[in-house]
Amino acid sequence: MTSESIETIEQFSDLTAVEYFGLVEAVNENYLFDLRQEICDFQPTVDFCIVTTGSDGKKERHIQSKTEFIILQNAEYSGDLGQEFTAWYEARSGSSVAEGFDVHSVTGTPEVKRLGQDTLSYAEGNADLVYPDRILNSTFVMGNPELQNQARASVLAEMTDVSDDGRRTRDRIRAQMRQYLRCLEIGYYYKSVVFQVDQPAQYYDERKETYTLGFKVPGIRTVQRALDVITIKSLQHQLISPEEALMLPANTVGRLNGLADAGILRDISGVTKGYEWFLQQYHLAQETFKASQVGVSVPFGLPTFLQHKVAVLQFVESAKG
Question: Domain range holding 115?
């Protein structure tokens, strides 16, 4: 671990969680600017749109994570803009696209979504990977922004559709929320220990054989998935219109505030502080791993953890209704 890394890690404890969250959002704006500069010369001859997704889309990414984006194209175009982007990028940069970006696990190219053809709530087209927030909470990078608007509207329709596919999507989202909630309760995700409270610490390791991501699932994804459930229920009960739902920010705390402003959520201070704290702690684990490249155990204060855990649990219970 270099002295530079140690200094960076120490900065995490110098900021409050809310200060850190604001810093992360500002830094992610810089990431977005850099991405636009890096790929601005990619100009296919067909209609397209590139959006960042995941933590990039929410502007919550730590630099240890690779930039994740999706290319939107119309179904009428028979080509694959992911392959075209890869060929363009690798010829231009001389390096593999997978070195700098999060790519499709099968094709090894950026993920492509075909509007009017693909189910946009499915990650990589896999019905077992239901993550509607990847498109819903995306951020525009370049191309035709109307394609992003169409894609986000399609995701809302998929989330609330009365068909068997729509019910299956909602069932998977609720099942994920219960699974993530269970992780927050016991500290295990499948067979991996993500945190413990006897000697309070979270565990982070990106190596395949010992893969575990600390507070990412219990403290972060739990809140994100609960927001998906709340959005679905609000649309179903006509508490908000699809147009109003599309106006909600991509950022998680912004989304909490937007739903509170709409009168759908009350007293979000506890879950907001909890989410900000868990994100800061998760990034600290990422930063520690980045410096060492071996599995790390990162201690945390138990009283603070328990306070934020309770706030998140209460929020998710209210989402379950």
Answer: 3-152
C-alpha of 92 from chain center: 29
For 249-255, which contacts have Cβ atoms below 8 Å and span 24 or more sequence positions?
A: 250/57, 250/58, 250/59, 250/136, 250/137, 250/138, 250/139, 251/25, 251/58, 251/59, 251/60, 251/137, 252/58, 252/60, 252/137, 252/220, 252/223, 252/224, 252/227, 253/21, 255/137, 255/227
| pLDDT tops 90 at residue 13 | no
Side chain identity at residue 317, one-letter code: E
| 0.90 surpassed by pTM | yes
Q: Is residue 157 part of a domain?
A: no
Residues contacting residue 208 through CB under 8 Å, at least 6 positions apart: none
Give the tens place of pLDDT for each residue, 62-77: 987 889 999 999 999 9
Domain membership flag for residue 159: no
Looking at the fold, whether 137 and 168 belong to one and the same domain comes out as no
